Amino acid sequence: MQRGDSLNSPFVPFSPNPSIQQGTPTSTPPLKHTLSSSTSSNLRYSSSRKSIYDRHLNRSQRSELSKASFAFLFGEMVQYAQKRVNGIADLEKKLNLHGYSIGQRLLELLLWREGRSAKRETRILGILQFITTTVYRSIFNKPADGLEKSRDNEDEYMLIDNDPMVNSYISVPKEMSQLNCAAFVAGIIEAVLDGCLFPGRVTAHSVPTEQLPAKTVFLIKFDEAVIERESVLG
């Protein structure tokens, strides 16, 4: 995860509608969201007076969230985190922690949906394939673009995303070019690994190319105990 100097300006989340693109961040007053009592009630309950917690967990298995909604929520989360940190390193750490909490719940949901057919992975390659396919597809509706093993370090693997969705809706100032908001996704991956007893550290790194300017590599560095267990299993 890249480290940098202190932050001097807040983020401006990218708006899918050019007509509502924000101007200078410092001159724009904070938005105030007001909900009437009837609107608040409609958000909490459906016409049948059942809350979202009454729904079956498989009901939303094939449902999709609009990108506009995701862009707004993620942009607000980045702004919220940015106002409470002192530098790029702290901001990436904060995003990583937010992603970690989501990854814990996502793993529980995926295993519950698999039911008795759920398989406990005991090998590194197996858990990484589970993340690049099942986990990644459940979040972004597509598998990861690649998975590689480090040639220099036995405990390092690289998961590749050529165009992370989380970076598509954030406008990063030039003075903060080292920031990669995909640290949020790195936190999700790390939580899944920890939950499956493959502890390690996951960081997001920008590796732009001429054809893939948004390419991001998630560097997965496993704990020594994981490598020792792998060698014992042969």
Automatic annotation (TrEMBL):
At the top level of its lineage, which domain of life is listed?
Eukaryota
What keywords appear on the UniProt entry? Endoplasmic reticulum, ER-Golgi transport, Golgi apparatus, Transport
Classification via InterPro entries: NO_sig/Golgi_transp_ligand-bd, TRAPP-I_su5, TRAPP_component
Compartment(s):
Endoplasmic reticulum; Golgi apparatus, cis-Golgi network
Q: Does the keyword Nucleotidyltransferase apply?
A: no
Q: According to its record, what are the GO cellular component terms?
A: endoplasmic reticulum; TRAPPI protein complex; TRAPPII protein complex; TRAPPIII protein complex
A single BP term in Gene Ontology: endoplasmic reticulum to Golgi vesicle-mediated transport
Known role: Plays a key role in the late stages of endoplasmic reticulum to Golgi traffic.
Name this protein carries in UniProt: Trafficking protein particle complex subunit
User: From which source organism is this entry?
Assistant: Choiromyces venosus 120613-1
